[in-house]
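QA checklist item 7 of 12: single-chain prediction sanity check.
[x] sequence parsed
[x] length recorded as 302
[x] structure emitted
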Amino acid sequence: MKLATLIFASTSLLGACVTDIEDESTDATEQMSQNPPELNPRHEVHVRGEARPGGGGHGGSSNGIDYHGGPIMTGTTNIHYIWYGNWSGNAVAQSILTDLASNIGGSPYFNINTTYTNGSGTHVSNSVAYAGSVNDNYSHGTSLSDTAIQQIVAGTNPTDTNGVYFVLTSADVNASSGFCSQYCGWHTHGTINGRDIKYSFVGDPTRCPASCEEQTTGPNGSSGADGMASIISHELEEAVTDPDLNAWYDRRGAENADKCAWTFGATYSSGGATANMRLGSRDFLIQQNWVNASGGFCAKSF
């Protein structure tokens, strides 16, 4: 969905240096607090039960999804994590999500995104790099507005215009614009320090497992992180094919991952849970994505 609609919303070493920004206010955040910029629309992922997986007939082109002239992300896409809230006792979850970011690039799954091009015919690359992370110790409290989430991103002084900055919140943090009731995550972009910065919010789905988790036991033993992995993947693939919300979506406003939300294809058992793909050394349960070829269809690989 576009504008006021709903969506889901990522390679380096696990030991990448983590910078702690805690309660310290940066110049960028102070500037934004005094003169907050107008927020761009966000694109959200529907909660379970409200997602509307698409088919070829839901778009206007022969592949069920249309190009609207905006940019895509080409070359290597960099993933930046912002661990917001209390992650001090959750090293396992951080390891799971770091492994996801470090291994999704180059996979048959992410290769689906290479079926999307810009106006010059340049394809999205099957290349993703984990660019590291920072900690934010509740700089904006435990209930975050959309403006606060942009300020959290700005507080890291982001400069990477070919990256996606993910604000990943601990289980005690809510997003006041509709987390758990309307969406499980979202992505958008904003002008921060004069640069077009792409960013995403993904909350801990253990706050609302009925709305934002496919299963309450994950293949890697962390219900929250295993659930977030699919939402991060959703937001990442939408960010690369529709970063400024004016590139690829269908006539209803559904981006590529929206068209396959909460569908997983063939699955297998792993770690007492269900999985459908292996990335690196871990099994994950990650939603399918829309292949922009052969009439368009949901798939786990291309």
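[x] summary fact logged: Confidence is low (pLDDT under 50) at residues 1-37.
[ ] second reviewer sign-off
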